């Protein structure tokens, strides 16, 4: 009888390389709604105090906290009608219930 051997390996958080994370997940998802250039996207994010080039996170919790802070900054910008070159329809989903991570 032929079969497939499956091995279950245990891992730990120490095996995750947090330093290789290149961007906060929410930002890359939002970029799909951006109607300007990459440079304009970066300038807009910097104008609302979000560094899209941040690449060092001390832990998964640090990444999670940074993502939540950035969501709050994006929500605040949209609430103040500062939408940059985002598709205007995105404003309807920039709400806490849709962005909870």
List keywords for this structure.
101 residues, 4 helices, 40% helix
Description of the molecule:
By secondary structure, the protein is mainly α. Helices cover 40% and strands 0% of the residues. It has four helices and no strands. The protein is elongated. 9% of the residues are buried. The mean pLDDT is 77.
List the helices and strands and how they pair.
Blueprint: H1 25-30, H2 38-47, H3 60-79, H4 96-99
CA radius of gyration is: 18 Å
Count up the helices. Answer: 4
The 3D shape can be described as elongated
Strand percentage: under 5%
Regions with little confidence, pLDDT below 50 for 5+ residues: none
Number of strand elements: 0
What is the string of SSEs from the N terminus onward?
Answer: HHHH
How can the largest sheet be summarized? none
Q: Structural class of the helix and strand makeup?
A: mainly alpha
Instruction: Kindly report how far apart the N and C termini lie.
Output: 46 Å
Q: What is the share of helical residues?
A: 25-40%
Mean pLDDT: 77
């Amino acid at each position: 009888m032929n079969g497939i051997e499956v091995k279950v390996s245990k891992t730990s958080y120490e095996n995750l390389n947090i330093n290789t994370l290149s961007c906060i997940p929410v930002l890359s998802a939002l970029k799909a709604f951006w109607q300007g250039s990459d440079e304009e996207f970066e300038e807009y994010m910097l104008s609302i105090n979000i560094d899209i080039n941040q690449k060092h996170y001390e832990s998964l919790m640090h990444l999670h906290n940074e993502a939540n802070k950035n969501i709050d900054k994006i929500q605040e910008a949209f609430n103040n009608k500062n939408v940059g070159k985002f598709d205007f329809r995105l404003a309807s989903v920039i709400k806490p219930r849709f962005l909870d991570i």
